[in-house]
Write a structure and sequence with these properties.
The protein is mainly α and 141 residues long. It is built from five helices and no strands. It is globular and about 50 Å long. The two termini are 24 Å apart.
């Protein structure tokens, strides 16, 4: 397939997201001594990296070639991520305006990850209109 095929664009963007999360994990590791509360976030992001790798692998495999034991993102993974997002948002005051990216390196990296994830989601939605992909792909993103 051509390098600019939509499927390749989709899992390539997920790979890009995974790389950005790797940067964020590195920033967390560097700050743990001063902010041990970041350990939970670091553990979540590491798990998400593995799940994104599985998602990219499934999207890189044509549906008829997916092995029954090939790791994939499941509804359980989606539910867990949603619960973690809700738990992190719970103590925060409601937003009254947009938040500018920045503040510290980790915040900027997480904002970058958010925007790349949204792009990956848009590409996956477009891909799902044209080809068969697992419904969990869009739900996870």
């Amino acid at each position: 397939v051509p390098k600019d095929a939509l499927r390749i664009d989709c899992y390539g963007t997920i790979d890009e997201l995974n790389s950005i999360l790797g940067l964020a994990c590195t920033s967390i590791e560097q700050q743990l001594e001063h902010c041990p509360d970041l350990e939970t976030l670091g553990n979540i992001l590491l798990r998400v990296q593995h799940e994104l790798f599985n998602l990219g692998s499934i999207l890189a495999t044509l549906p008829q070639d997916v092995h029954p034991r090939q790791p994939r993102v499941t509804q359980t993974d989606i539910d867990q991520l949603e619960n973690e997002i809700d738990a992190m948002n719970e103590p925060l005051a409601p937003l009254r305006s947009f938040v500018l990216p920045g503040g510290c390196r980790l915040n900027a990296e997480l904002h970058l990850a958010r925007t790349v994830c949204r792009r990956a989601e848009r590409i996956a939605v477009n891909l799902a209109r044209q080809e068969s992909i697992p419904p969990e792909a869009v739900g996870y993103l």
